[in-house]
Design brief:
InterPro entries: Metal_resp_DNA-bind_regulator, Tscrpt_reg_PadR_N, WH-like_DNA-bd_sf, WH_DNA-bd_sf. This is PadR family transcriptional regulator. Pfam families: PadR. By secondary structure, this protein is mainly alpha-helical. It is about 55% helix and about 10% strand. Helix 1 crosses helix 4. The longest helix has about 30 residues, at about 95-129.
């Protein structure tokens, strides 16, 4: 008996939330601004709130992504807040030169892969309807 099966395999999933967060964070920071985790979470929730399929927006993945970017040297962080005024502190992030270079050198490939995946999915849908 043969173990070979004839089946249609969906394209490799390049819509990885962590990679999407990575490039979004670096893009926003490359504008010269600082950001913090909850702001990223808010932007993604607002952007995808009306999507037909739920998009997995996760605060833990956002903070894990920020942590990884910091470990790789692509971003730096510091705490802000005023304890005397009893304002809650938050960690804000800024991009490094290495982060700018990483973004510039890899964003085009990532977007191209997303477009190829979309194109393949469009062909699959066309075949079925």
């Amino acid at each position: 008996m043969s173990n070979n099966r004839n089946r249609l395999v969906a394209p490799r999933n390049v819509v990885n939330t962590k990679m999407l967060y990575t490039f979004y964070i670096l893009k926003e920071l490359a504008k010269g601004e600082t950001i913090f985790g909850n702001k990223i979470l808010e932007v993604f929730r607002n952007k995808f709130q009306n999507a037909e399929r739920p998009f997995p927006v996760s605060s833990s993945t956002i903070y894990e992504t920020l942590y990884d970017l910091e470990l790789k040297g692509y971003v730096t962080s510091h705490w802000i807040g005023d304890e005397a005024m009893n304002k809650r502190s938050k960690k804000v992030y800024a991009i490094t030169d290495e982060g700018v270079e990483f973004y510039k050198n890899h964003i085009a490939d990532y977007v191209d892969n997303l477009k190829k995946t979309k194109s393949t999915l469009d062909l699959m849908i066309e075949m079925l309807v």
